[in-house]
Design brief:
about 50% helix; about 350 residues; about 10% strand; TIM Barrel; homodimer; alpha/beta
Chain lengths: ~350, ~350
Amino acid sequence: MLQSSVAPRLLRALSGEAFDSPPVWFMRQAGRFLPEYRAIRETAKDFISFCLNPELAAEVTLQPARRFPFDAAIVFADILLIPLALGQAVWFEAGEGPRLGPLPEIDRLRAGIDAVEDILRPVSETLRRVRAALEPERALIGFAGAPWTVLTYMLRGRGGEQPEARAHAYAHPEAVDQLIDILIEATARYLAMQAAAGAQVLQIFESWAEGLPDDQFLRLVTDPHARLIARLRELGVDLPIIGFPRGAGANLTAYAAAVPVQGLGLDTQTPLAFGQLLQAGGKTLQGALDPLLLRAGGPALDQRVEEMLEAWSSGPYIFNLGHGILPDTPIDHVDRVVRRVSGR
Amino acid sequence: MLQSSVAPRLLRALSGEAFDSPPVWFMRQAGRFLPEYRAIRETAKDFISFCLNPELAAEVTLQPARRFPFDAAIVFADILLIPLALGQAVWFEAGEGPRLGPLPEIDRLRAGIDAVEDILRPVSETLRRVRAALEPERALIGFAGAPWTVLTYMLRGRGGEQPEARAHAYAHPEAVDQLIDILIEATARYLAMQAAAGAQVLQIFESWAEGLPDDQFLRLVTDPHARLIARLRELGVDLPIIGFPRGAGANLTAYAAAVPVQGLGLDTQTPLAFGQLLQAGGKTLQGALDPLLLRAGGPALDQRVEEMLEAWSSGPYIFNLGHGILPDTPIDHVDRVVRRVSGR
């Protein structure tokens, strides 16, 4: 236990340790709510170039840690780097979000798996730079999008069209299952590369888990996550993993039972009592403050933070938001919450 | 029990009776997937006039019952008739959905409550016509939007902006609570009028329950539903009530415990095992076939229908969709499912 007492608090929480002042980080903490992020963003010619520029990406990864006593930095990257590496065009329309070109033939995508590590090597370099600069008590998180979420973008060419992608999964089951297989392998190699480059925790972002009937949730979320993790273990990756199936609702029970993650990312609507059940089942919780409340601030924010600490900090818990921080969030709201939670 | 054996099967299910072939109806069954609906829709000058024309509204309410062995008809109307009656402009942009004018001052809205029954009297007339024409073994369902869902439209002027409305609820708690109070009273009077006009069941549509943290779910969904039902009982309405908090996720447990509904409408993502727990807790389930699967058809649809019947028909259960039927759903898919479920 001597070693664990000097390990970053985030890793200790993922090993099952509880803290009166739990470790804390915020999804999208390296992002537009920080003026220093916006200043650097302007120097990159486009968003993909920005993600694949280790100097700039490492700098924005480190920025939030300079301002706030966060317990972790998360590598600055994007979940759509995987389709890009597999050979599908990806670009970002200003103010509109990501756009993807036509879905390549399945054989071309499959052949693209072997190129993933080469094409995404700059993300490794970002991780190395960040790990070298980051204080040892802060953990470095690597991440990827989950196969289903990434597939919704690949099928529809943009975000926010999960129902249409779900319709496609009903209409073309074999093609979708093959695409999921390809994404599992590509994502496993990408995450293994991040682990080799210094990531100490891996998070799987399933941003579009909502609305899926339980059989489709099993097919498209639970089973691919479990297979992705099994493949990572095969590749020799022994890091703790956080699964974040946003919008899973009551399907979270089945997810927690079947997917061997150490950490369970919770979205804004996870009831406090439900989280306690998941904790009792052996998972470390991560979440789930409403980013809209963080932005709104005031006594309601203070009160909710106390309720969350009261409900969850007696078990293993990493304080976080239930979704990414909003670009127009006042910095002093972040400062107030992070200092309260961390006791620093 | 002699009387109950001749009551419509839908009402018997809401009294706790289980059927090998459960009663069935589909949300938005009076809608665009039917060519005879589209033909009538074209004759009305706008959507609001259509809803408030008892002759046309009664006709489209009855149309699906002529084609399919549905166990219920649901009055053709719209959840935005309440803000209209309270004095906020409401119109429908072709292909874009509803639009609302500026939110009136709160005192004007409150004063509008007394006008609700007069302005929405045509809905009563629709119910009377339908009840007179409908076979006695089919139940007639009245409905209204839940206060929070209606408020999201009133605050934002359109649908699909629940997060923005939630932000407003954080920023302006007193104003939002006053608006919820007004909507509870207006909706109670509207539903009581529907009961007096022949509705035998009332359904409360909470279309935007998703994403709410448990304290806000209690404040904006559970508590207003419970108060609405208490007010209905005060007004002498003793009909069974179905609550449909779409997207509630794990908050459904708290909802079922606190809101005295007889029927619980389930959305597409409610796990079958979770539904069984709710059934064991004394609720009649209603739902939850994925409309995207109904549209897709094929063996996967047949298999899912069997799974749902297997999981839920040993307890009180009304077969339905987990969301409204999609306009481009093939009629023979509907026919196939309804005949399988009803055994007719």
